[in-house]
Amino acid sequence: MIERSLGFAVWMVIGFFAFGITHAQAYLDPGTSSMILQAVIGAVAGALVVIKLYWYKLTSFFKGRVGTKTDARGTDKDE
To answer: pLDDT tier at 11 (50, 70, 90 boundaries)?
Structure first.
């Protein structure tokens, strides 16, 4: 039953692309590219903030020191 409906869906997609609209007549204004650029910059900034927030956990995970804290001078103190 699932194979039959999957085959039907595949033929529907093929038919859509074979007999569908050939020219979309779409227009992208200059504001669209600035929105895309803004989204990319925002995603990069968000990723950098997340990395900054979890930087200590990331470094301690890779160094293998779980449960230690550093004081103001940078030396390790066990809890």
So the answer is: confident
